[in-house]
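3.2 Worked example (two chains)
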Amino acid sequence: MRAFLFALLLPLGCAAQLNNWDPRWYATDSALTFHDDLDYYLNAYSEKEIRAMRQQVSIWRMNFDKLMRGTIRELRAYSEGHGMDGRTHDFDLPIAQREGRYRLSANPGKIRAFMFGSISNPPARVQMERWSRLMKKYENEPDVQLFVVYGRELHPGDRKKFKMYPMPKSESEKMAYAKEFAQLGSLPVLVDGLDEAVYTAYGRVPNGAYLVDADGRLVFRATWADARKIEHMIDTLLRWYKAGRPAGFEAK
């Protein structure tokens, strides 16, 4: 959360806009692994979009020194990767839009991309729309699954935009938030429990993104979800599988 606040405090047009992720991959005869994107800058957004997100939260009323100390602790713990265990953690969660549950390990052979989000998380709200467009793109690819895990509120009860969404105190209240968040797009929204077990297992990153390959390997982690990067990696994996998983797979 504090990493997000720090990114919003940066002057517009500065390094926050620098997209320095390495899109290359490393191929073996059994896996295709991508470079993690554990930077804390909001490089997925334009200056206009960051300005709009700034207006939704009360970062200017916070003590700056306290904010910076908290940001550094957060970066050391999570955003630089130390708290993000680089492996797949199974989960079995209810689905907000309908009856039923989704279990990660019950879908072998699928490429699974997911992000964390919440109704009081401005970047996740933007990405919900962008990932929904990706879902439309891959609707004829039965081996691709995209979804959201509804995790922790990023700015609960903050300002006019999120005043009606304090930190949920019950599973039913959190489910109600998730159902409302789901209306922002078309992706399935899975709801983590109040114990935040899944959110914690994946590094406690409010808008983190993850890619699991068809063999269940976690092949990408990101501090901030970015639909463009997820699209690039899914397309690459699909080409690699169709090519027979060659160890010498090259970029196109």
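3.2.1 Second chain
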Amino acid sequence: MSGDGLQAILFDMDGVLYNSEAPIAGAADAVNWIREQGIPHLFVTNTSSRGRAALVDKLRRFGVTADENQILNPGVVAAAWLRSQPPGGVALFVRPAAREEFAGFACLAEDAESGAAYVVIGDLGDRWDYHTLNRAFRLLHSDPEARLIALGMTRYWQTPEGLALDVAPFVAALENASGRSALVMGKPAPAFFRAAFERLGVPAGAVVMIGDDLHADIAGAQAAGMKGGLVRTGKFRPSDLDGKVRPDAVLDSVADLPRWWRSQAS
């Protein structure tokens, strides 16, 4: 335990441990140090373009050992929520690799324009086009009771080619057109962070979230009662430090986490 009462860590993945397909220097060593110290941790991500098995493989390629139970993503939280709801048609706007979390649900055909009780919006990347977005709108419009489910509200992310739109802009368009608010299952929703610290078995105030997104990671964690540590990698921009959101720590990269953690105990 650190001197200010911290007991556990949440790691964002893309932008913190790696940038797209390139590992961030020192990230694997930092995570390995955390594991050696016996510090409870989870990997939390708004990635909805692939399932947990693929994320485990990706981490392993970069020298980070994890199992699926150590990864929390919006698909896991959304699937758990759907199991608690009345049965109904589920319209999935996610990539094929991310559909594994929704096995067992009554998923509609990919050309359906009605019959959805739940419309689930994830990261389709360049698969988004007018027809696809309009089909999601028609599904919502056909049933005023249909729920709009957002797998995170990340606005953009860092790719090798530059910044790219993520889920939030498409969810915002559907909220505007349908006149209803999305139920958010990923960061920055408090329910997502609550699921994380409950899985860790520690109180919110004893957890620090390490992320590169000032809003989804830092502000979201702080709103849930956690600490937020911002890294200067991934989508970080110097202007992030000029706004109203004030991180509890700013690290050049996750490689500095062990040193920072030790400094909290001194």
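3.3 Remarks
The two ends are 11 Å apart (CA to CA).
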